[in-house]
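User: Working on a comparison across species. This one is Coenzyme Q-binding protein COQ10 START domain-containing protein from Penicilliopsis zonata CBS 506.65. Can you predict its structure so I can line it up against the others?
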Amino acid sequence: GDNNDSSRKRHLTASRVLPYAPAPLFRTISAVESYSSFLPFLTASTVTARDERTGLPSEAFLTVGYGPLSETFTSKVDCDERAWVVEARSGGIAPHGTRTGHPPPSGFSLDKAIPGANEGIFEYMSTRWELVPLSTSPVSTKVQLEIRFELRSQLHAAMMGAVEGQMASLMIEAFERRIRDTY
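Assistant: Here's the predicted structure for Coenzyme Q-binding protein COQ10 START domain-containing protein from Penicilliopsis zonata CBS 506.65:
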């Protein structure tokens, strides 16, 4: 038995202060469908549902990968424009460690759509972007990225070990480049 769970759990954070107002930054982080075109470790991103009121993504297929490791998740996406937060949660975890009560539709198997998907590298994966408007002049916003995941095996943990220390900062740097290219 492997009772050493903690060695497979990760909590990564990075933050940056960018010289932009929060609104354009929020537009970029809530455009989940374009994640794969600029974020490292996200090799595919497809929005599968949108909030009827806001038109913002509420569910997506996200493929997370590094080297030979790759996994596609159905992710629940929360885009909260009032709080300037975009959160994507995948796998068996919801906020604060409660399990989501939404099993996939009966008869639905990711294995049929994506071979091997159910074998799984990650128990769960969540990314949370939070924007904190700063009362500075000129206008600037603090971008905070929080990534939590648990790996299924020690082998995967060892393989991810090489990159995970830089994962959050690489993602936030890529976001910064995307913003510079867009605005």
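For your comparison, note: The chain has a mean pLDDT of 84.

User: Helpful, thanks.
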